[in-house]
Amino acid sequence: MPYIDQKGREKFKPVVELLGSLRISDNKELAVLIRLFIDCFMGNYRDSWVVCNSDDKFISVEKLLHQIFADNNGELNYLITKTIKSYIDCHGEKYQNYDDVINAIDRVYSDINKDKSFTAPCGTLSCVKHELFRRKIDPYENLKIQENGDVY
């Protein structure tokens, strides 16, 4: 995020590089990674939700997060945003992939919102989603309107 300076981003470089080497195959895996960041941020390592919804593919990410973790919501936002960027970079910029990202965010949001004592990251997820719309999806839709014509 632009409010985290380059020096602040450096501490996450190993996590971002590892994300780039993983192939996040679908929105379920994306949701698992987002939830893993939130669980580690909240101090809930090896949360049952992540264990039940993933395989060993993300163990290396989790181990790294024990050493390198977000200290505040801005850093959590940065990690989630870089994960989303990695997913879009891997799968391409198209409607289905943006829809996958929105569904993953909504899935995690819904899951953590069930536990009223665990709502702190909900605001961060909302910010991530709004920024995704503002910075990526809206311009993409405007391009498609120019290419294909408007529906409204």
Average predicted local confidence, pLDDT: 85
Structural class by secondary-structure content: mainly alpha
The N- and C-terminal alpha carbons lie at a distance of 33 Å
- The percent range for helix content is over 70%
Q: Uncertain spans, ≥5 residues at pLDDT below 50?
A: none
Main sheet record: none
SSE ordering: HHHHHHHH
Count of all domains = 1
Radius of gyration equals 16 Å
Approximate strand percentage: under 5%
Number of strands: 0
Count of helix runs = 8
Shape: globular
Question: What's the topology here?
Answer:
Blueprint: H1 6-10, H2 13-21, H3 27-41, H4 48-52, H5 59-67, H6 73-91, H7 95-113, H8 120-148
Helix pairs in contact: 2-5, 2-6, 3-6, 3-7, 6-8, 7-8
Description:
There is one protein chain. The protein is mainly alpha-helical. It has one domain (10-148). 72% of the residues lie in helices and 0% in strands. It is globular, with a radius of gyration of 16 Å. It starts with 5 loop residues before the first helix and ends with a helix.
